[in-house]
């Protein structure tokens, strides 16, 4: 395999010029860059990743801990996210290393080992929690990181993040159902211990209040994110005697439970009761009627995560090339409502 010196000799430039071609091509004249690039290709030169990352503090291999879900169930949206994350990394000549680790302090040895062996240069975090030990350790080690999702219950975020505005998404769903003639819109939620649930619940409640719609006793909490719990909670709403004609579910899974319960009662989603979900998972488009759902912009999420992480100082602002102004490392993206038959006008 060719060395850096051999490439420099072949291109008749200095070793520093070859280094610039690899790490700072904007410093070279176009003709010089072209000559060095040609030599690199002809000699099939491949930089040593560990040596290069040590010299440049570059983030080239990114670690991501694949979350585990209760009862070993699959997460319909995670597959979409992983594809988007890998695609965004590869578009910038980087790659994702997937691994598993226990949550909390028990999982820290895995992160420490990956860093000590220089198997990764930075991390994308998810399933972050209050007082998550990963944030403090990564800052102390000066390892670049960024989180997919906010940490709830803390006055300030412990590091850079990219998230989707779930409150806006649920509010959008309420307004959509209101536009289709629904006037008593229930909400299927998760336990109070979930900050994410409370955020989305606040969006439902705020939109109902703005539209002068009732909210009392119209939010039902589910103990688990399962179809069975969604069906049970829907039955509770329908049996409450409040004439519920719309349901906003905090997830597609709970919404599918709502569709099941409506069908069991001889009711038609989109005609008798409008139903919306959240995540626009693959199942949303294959059930009948199709499930109206809030879509998270996975490609944009992944792109922002990689853009923040690959800046040399991921805890500081990233420059926006179009304006040359600092770009915040706290990115709250807007979701999109995908309308299908489950919320057709009644």
UniProtKB/TrEMBL annotation:
Domain (HTH lacI-type) ranges: 2-56
Q: Which InterPro entries match?
A: HTH_LacI, LacI/GalR-like_sensor, Lambda_DNA-bd_dom_sf, Peripla_BP_I
Q: Which SUPFAM superfamilies match?
A: lambda repressor-like DNA-binding domains, Periplasmic binding protein-like I
- Region of interest: Disordered: 316-346
Q: Which UniProt keywords apply?
A: DNA-binding, Transcription, Transcription regulation
Q: Which PANTHER family match?
A: HTH-TYPE TRANSCRIPTIONAL REGULATOR GALS, LACI-RELATED TRANSCRIPTIONAL REPRESSOR
Which intervals carry biased composition (Polar residues)?
Answer: 316-327
> Which region is the signal sequence?
none
Write one Pfam family the protein is assigned to: LacI
* This protein's name: LacI family transcriptional regulator
Q: Name one GO molecular function term.
A: DNA-binding transcription factor activity
Organism the protein comes from: Kribbella voronezhensis
């Amino acid at each position: 395999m060719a060395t850096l010196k051999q490439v420099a000799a072949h291109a008749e430039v200095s070793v520093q010029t070859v280094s610039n071609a690899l790490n700072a091509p904007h410093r070279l004249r176009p003709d010089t860059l072209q000559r060095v690039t040609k030599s690199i290709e002809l000699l099939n030169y491949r930089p040593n990743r560990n040596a290069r990352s040590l010299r440049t503090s570059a983030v080239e291999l990114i670690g991501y801990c694949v979350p585990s879900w209760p009862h070993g169930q699959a997460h319909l949206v995670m597959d979409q996210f992983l594809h988007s994350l890998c695609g965004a990394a590869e578009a910038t000549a980087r790659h994702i290393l997937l691994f598993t680790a226990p949550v909390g302090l028990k999982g820290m040895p895995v992160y420490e080992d990956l860093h000590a062996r220089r198997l990764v240069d930075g991390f994308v975090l998810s399933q972050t929690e209050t007082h998550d030990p990963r944030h403090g350790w990564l800052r102390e080690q000066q390892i670049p990181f960024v989180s997919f999702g906010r940490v709830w219950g803390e006055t300030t975020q412990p590091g850079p993040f990219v998230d989707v505005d779930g409150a806006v998404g649920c509010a959008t769903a309420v307004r959509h159902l209101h536009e289709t003639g629904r006037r008593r819109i229930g909400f299927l939620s998760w336990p109070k211990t979930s900050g994410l649930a409370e955020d989305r619940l606040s969006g439902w409640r705020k939109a109902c209040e703005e539209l002068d719609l009732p909210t009392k006793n119209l939010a039902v909490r589910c103990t688990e994110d399962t179809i069975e719990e969604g069906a049970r909670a829907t039955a509770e709403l329908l049996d409450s005697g409040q004439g519920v004609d719309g349901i906003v579910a905090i997830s597609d899974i709970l919404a599918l439970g709502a569709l099941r319960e409506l069908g069991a009662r001889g009711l038609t989603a989109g005609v008798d009761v409008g139903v919306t979900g959240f995540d626009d998972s693959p199942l949303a488009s294959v059930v009948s009627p199709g499930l109206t759902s809030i879509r998270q912009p996975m490609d944009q999420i992944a792109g922002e995560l990689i853009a923040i992480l690959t800046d040399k100082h991921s805890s500081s602002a990233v420059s926006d090339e179009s304006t040359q102004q600092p770009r915040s490392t706290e990115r709250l993206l807007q979701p999109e409502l995908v309308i299908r038959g489950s919320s057709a006008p009644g």
